[in-house]
Amino acid sequence: MSLVPTIFMHEEDFVWQAFFVPADFTVKQAADFLMSLVANATVWPKSKEVRIVKYHTGEVLDPEAKFGEVVKPGEPILLVWWPPKEEWWKKKDDEVFRVIKETEELMRTKAPRSPMNIFREEFERLSIIRRLEREGKI
Amino acid sequence: MVMPETEIKTREELARRAELISARLRRTVEYARKLGRGGSALKEAAEFYIAKSYWLNWRAIAALTGPSMDYLTPLDGRVMSFREFITEWVGAQFKRQLEDYGIELPWYWRYWEEETKWWHHSFELGIYLYRRTLNIHNRGPTPEERRWLEEKYPGWEETFGRFWDLYAKNYIDGKPPLPKPAPLLCNMCQVPLISVKPGRHVVIYQKVYNGRLYNFCSPVCMWIWEQEKERYAGHMTYVDRLLAGKIKLSPEAMGNIERLWDEIIWNMGFAESGEAGLDATNGAWALLYKERDPNYETRVKRWMEAGP
User: What is the rounded CA–CA span in Å between residue B108 and residue B82?
Assistant: First the structure.
């Protein structure tokens, strides 16, 4: 049986979790299976359907699709109570998300580089290992 | 008046230590000036090390001191919350020191400030639930402690109360709360990827390097890793090794989740008696909700009906 290493989080949970899901499960079977792992442990059980949404793209997966064909190993997925009042996973505009977005932007524009990156040319020029590599000795 | 010999020795020792501290401080200031003269590249390098060290130390201190101060210290012994402590005794002093040396604050300062409100509460939920994988004992907050938490962290009840009510209900129903899946660990700080603040404030950062997928809890951890990826790329967290099949488990464990957790605990080198973390009160904290919290049943009904 082929298993997909899966990273998932329920919308009411506080931690990303990892488990294996059989690749031949339908998305609905996978959602029910993952829900059974967190219900009564970190998430209050409810008599509601759960669907799977891709974290990076916000795509809601077809419950009848084969899990192993639509979710790649390690691709993060969200478990969402269905039907939702709104597509909350696309709506990231409160104060906490503003701070997150601002930090992501600062990471690109303001965060300092490590000495290895600042002085990369010098490191490459002075490194004994690099010289031996250039000379074909290692 | 002649001073006793012990007092003379104490004074001499104090003077010697003062001189030592002053010499060290002088050297530090001189070094900072030298860095300044060395140009912007050296300043950037210093800022990198400061930002990296501050962040990784923050993770350690929030993980260790946050739960200790806000959850495990008896209520009558608490003088301040962890957030009050970290904001003034660590954050403010650090900020003043950096200003003295003309060094910029770490670029993620606002993100750090946001984490001081919530992060260690999510972490405590995790170390309580996954207590068997740690060799420390834990317990949940009593109804009185929850009132203190709400006072110190407005919004705590709405955000974290639902989880503690669920753990309490498990105990009341005779089923100690334990997890089934493994928490995903950050490939930089090694800590579980928890919400900045539960209630859909979910982030996860991923990078693929040399064909391998790496997961990070925050933009800061991803930044540290990206700056020195050759240094960290080879390391696998416990959960990475589990997912990669590098931890030997019996065929029986693959079909039985209780057995799976037992084998993981044994693999970590913990025996259940006295080594693996337990609830130090054996769930007594949870039973208090039935006795002392008139709103407990109403809340349980609400959590089972409402969304976040």
Answer: 20
Q: What is the spatial distance between Cα B286 and Cα B141, in angstroms, rounded to a whole number?
A: 8
Q: Under a CB-based contact definition with an 8 Å cutoff, are residues A52 and A61 in contact?
A: yes
ipTM of the prediction? 0.92
Q: Where are the beta strands (DSSP E) in chain A?
A: 3-10, 17-22, 49-54, 76-82
Give pLDDT tens digits along chain A (138 positions): 799 999 999 999 999 999 999 999 999 999 999 999 999 999 999 989 999 999 999 999 999 999 999 999 999 999 999 999 999 998 888 899 999 999 999 999 999 999 989 988 888 888 898 899 999 998
Instruction: Find, among A52, A47, A66, the residue nearest to A10 by Cα.
Output: A52
The pTM assigned to this predicted structure is: 0.87
Nearest residue in A to B227, CA atom = A114
Yes or no: say if A89 and B307 are a contact pair by the CB < 8 Å rule: no
The answer, for A12 touching chain B at a CB cutoff of 8 Å, is yes
Residue B279 main-chain phi, psi, to 5 deg: -80, 115
A96-134: b (≥16 Cβ within 10 Å) or e: beebbeebbebbeeebbbbbeebbeeeeeeeeeeeeeee
Residue of B nearest to A93 (CA): B201
B43 vs B37: CA distance, rounded Å: 9
Residue B305, both tokens: 């009906």
- CB contacts < 8 Å between A and B, how many? 156
Single-letter residue type at B94: F
Are B296 and B162 in contact, with CB atoms under 8 Å apart?
A: no
Count the helix, strand and coil residues of chain B and give each as a percent rounded to the nearest 5.
65, 5, 30
